[in-house]
Amino acid sequence: KYSRGVVGFITGSLEFPGAAILGVTAAMRTGIGMVRYLGPREVGELLIQTRPEAVLVDGRAQAWVFGSGVAVASADKALMQSHFEAADLSVVDAGALEVLDLRSRTGLAVLTPHAGELARLIGVTKDEVLANPENNATLAAVATDCVVLLKGHSSYIAAPDGEIREIENLSSALATAGTGDVLAGILGALLAANHDDAMQNAFLDIVELGVRLHS
Predict the structure, then answer these.
(1) Helical ranges in 31-163 per DSSP H
(2) Does the predicted model carry a pTM greater than 0.85?
């Protein structure tokens, strides 16, 4: 289980507990060796009814997933921030995009906003993002010093150095509630399972693989 990778989750909330279950289930179905879950205790109790193999104890993980289903007003910001700063690899989704100090990272991170979340991140309108997704994804990557995956029917992966990849014609089935939580879990599992010294060069390839596998 350890050689296949360990991924940690700080996701879900009392308002949106399903996000945690979807993300953890996606990671397990991607083939990860073990999952740690550190979200709200009540959500953890629900989670182990569905995924009893999940571990509700803190510890080492090769990658962490933050924010899916997190209610910003009630988030445990200190817990999330401390794990983000220590993580080698991070997936930052949904509520964590507003909670975390994104430039405080030491490892590699991918942000997974949809158009509305990206707009709030860089201070533009959603319509502006949709009119020029490539440029706005790149602006966000430069501003945060993180890889940005702008989700949509066509998705865009932007790196701080200016590299941009477009992935077109993704499944229309992705336009349903909860699919972003699933994508975050898949990405966390792929990053943890492929954690090695070559990750710096393979990071964008793994993110792209996650998008295609998700579709």
Answers:
(1) 41-50, 77-86, 96-99, 115-122, 126-131, 133-144
(2) yes
Cα distances (Å, whole numbers) of residue 115 to 73, 108, 162, 176, 205: 21, 22, 19, 15, 22
Write out pLDDT tens, residues 179-194.
999 999 999 999 999 9
Among 140, 141, 142, which Cα is nearest to 119's? 140
What is the amino acid identity at position 158?
A: A
Q: How many CB atoms lie within 10 A of CB 143?
A: 15
As given in the structure block, the two tokens for residue 7 are 């991924």
Tokens of 163: 């590299």
Cα distance between residue 197 and residue 200, in whole Å: 7
Give CA–CA dist 161/145, Å, rounded. Answer: 9
Cα 207 → chain centroid: 10
